[in-house]
Structure to design on (353 residues):
């Protein structure tokens, strides 16, 4: 069932027409799930990020009706002119309810996340999401920022960038990873990560991990089920390719001091070899036009197998089903009990007060 993208400022009062107050939700709303997407990406990646999440939700939503509204943090400079056409500030959500929320990350502009210009509005969002959604997904840097605010868990910078497609293993029988299989692949693209021991000490539960890139996905159950992804299930097959090309350009323009590593487990052997040769040439001479053209020649038209899409769809399907079941239970004023064939450590579903 296609995802319906709603103008989040359609209503006369400036709030989403499908969003409701807590009392309206308790009295019973329609079966449509309201999902908000807070897109924090800069203009170069803004529209692609929007497309990726809409496509993933669309693929995962069979039989589940979804209305999607689009938001930005008021202090974040994102998206260019597209924001005014389709996006609203999160300020319109005050006093409102969304069944589910997805918050994207963005490249930091300061060494300390608390120094980011949007930090205050972000922390207010964490508090709002805790009490006004059934579940919220925090993606990559948004995950790091959320746990820093909630529990003071800081991220740690790695010597090498976690960049590529990594094999992940399920470490839990939680319903959110049901049917994903014991092992699967997931893209990662980050310099920083969080230590598993810090998460466990803070009351978080690790769902999946990878030997090469450490923790993949984890959760914390509060009033809302908070889901954290250090990887990127939403990525398209060529997203890492485009990031690599971008980072090569940054190096050649002297915006960074390190030539980017080739994404691991992503390109075929011949492509990796050709890119390694270009990396060696670039170290000897930053003839930017020549190297950029050579990299483009190697990568243009390159077909990448998307080995993570089916897993990503399953993960988001599980998430949507969790939200749908909670919404139905709350509407009917009942609690969903675990059946004999339910996953043993299924999280508690929300009930009416």
């Amino acid at each position: 069932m296609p995802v319906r993208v709603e103008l989040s400022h359609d209503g006369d009062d400036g709030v989403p027409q499908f969003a409701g107050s807590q009392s309206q939700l308790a009295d019973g709303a329609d079966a449509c799930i309201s999902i908000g997407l807070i897109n924090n990406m800069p203009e170069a990646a803004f529209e692609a990020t929007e497309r990726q999440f809409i496509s993933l939700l669309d693929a995962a939503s069979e039989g589940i009706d979804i209305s999607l509204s689009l938001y930005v943090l008021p202090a974040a400079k994102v998206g260019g002119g597209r924001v005014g056409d389709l996006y609203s500030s999160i300020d319109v959500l005050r006093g409102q309810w969304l069944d589910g929320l997805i918050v994207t990350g963005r490249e930091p502009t300061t060494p300390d996340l608390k120094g980011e210009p949007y930090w205050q509005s972000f922390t207010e969002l964490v508090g709002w999401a805790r009490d006004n959604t059934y579940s919220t997904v925090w993606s990559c840097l948004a995950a790091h920022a959320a746990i820093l605010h909630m529990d003071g868990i800081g991220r740690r910078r790695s010597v090498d960038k976690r960049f590529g497609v990594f094999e992940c293993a399920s470490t839990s029988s939680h319903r959110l990873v049901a049917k994903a299989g014991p092992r699967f692949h997931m893209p990662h693209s980050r310099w920083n990560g969080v230590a598993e021991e810090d998460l466990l000490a803070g009351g978080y539960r690790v769902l999946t991990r990878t030997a090469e890139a450490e923790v993949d996905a984890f959760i914390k159950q509060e009033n809302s089920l908070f889901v954290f992804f250090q990887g990127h299930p939403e990525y398209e097959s060529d997203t890492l390719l485009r990031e690599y090309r971008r980072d090569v350009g940054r190096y050649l323009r002297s915006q960074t001091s390190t030539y980017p590593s080739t994404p691991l487990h992503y390109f075929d052997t011949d492509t990796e070899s050709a890119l390694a040769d270009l990396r060696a040439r670039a170290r000897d001479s930053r003839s930017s036009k020549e190297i950029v053209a050579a990299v483009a020649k190697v990568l243009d038209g390159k077909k990448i197998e998307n080995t993570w899409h089916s897993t990503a769809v399953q993960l988001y399907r599980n998430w949507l089903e969790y939200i749908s079941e909670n919404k139905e239970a709350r509407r009917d004023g009942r609690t969903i009990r675990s059946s004999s064939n339910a996953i043993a450590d299924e999280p508690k579903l929300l009930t009416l007060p």
